[in-house]
């Protein structure tokens, strides 16, 4: 779904903004190419606005989607729980709070109980008669 794609894209953009801000505020280090004229305050504001949107709009929407009363499809719930975990990809230790930890843990427990991971072992070094069909 498009909303889940936009959510993943927003998390990736947030990660880039954090990286750019970290590299551009390092004392005694030259700025990376392409970021020479970046204004830190604009990046900080954009990052805070993006995180606010993710926290106040996206997380409640995804939690609404996985409400057990509404959603009986386990595969769809697995997908949404995985996205809830992904929303906290760029968090540092100091940024975690009660809500973020509870979302992470409940989603992780849900996935470990309901998601069926593949039990096949793949050997990349196994000889194959047809190299166009990898294991």
Content-based structural category: mainly alpha
The tally of strands reads 0
Shape: elongated
| Count of helix runs | 4
Distance between the termini: 29 Å
**Unreliably modeled segments:** none
Give the C-alpha Rg. Answer: 20 Å
Helical fraction: 55-70%
Q: Note the run of SSEs as H and E.
A: HHHH
Quick one: biggest sheet?
none
Strand content: under 5%
| Mean pLDDT, all residues | 85
Q: Secondary structure elements and their pairing?
A:
Elements: H1 2-24, H2 40-65, H3 74-86, H4 98-114
Helix pairs in contact: 1-2, 2-3, 3-4
Structure description:
The protein has helices spanning 2-24, 40-65, 74-86, 98-114. It is mainly α. Helix 1 (2-24) packs antiparallel against helix 2 (40-65). The protein is built from 4 helices and no strands.
Key features of this structure:
0% strand; mainly alpha; 4 helices; 135 residues; elongated
Question: What is the compact description of this entry?
Answer:
The protein is mainly α and 135 residues long. It has four helices and no strands.
